Amino acid sequence: xxxxxxxxxxxxxxxxxxxxxxxxxxxHKLKETSIYGHFNVPGGSTxxxxxxxxxxxxxxxxxxxxxxxxxxK
Length: 73
Fold this sequence. Notes:
Layout: H1 11-28, H2 53-56, H3 59-71
Helix pairs in contact: 1-3
């Protein structure tokens, strides 16, 4: 929760997001490359700044953490 155009997500928020995304990827048999911010959804609208520049800049790190989690047993 927050305005990530202005605020920087906390480590706790990033870790919680990584956990949720890892679980969803496992449940739906997806890879980390399927993770997009609202602004980047293929075929979606680019008229939004969601999830905000300060979270969007973390997406590569988030994807990498999810990828690591997916390879662990």
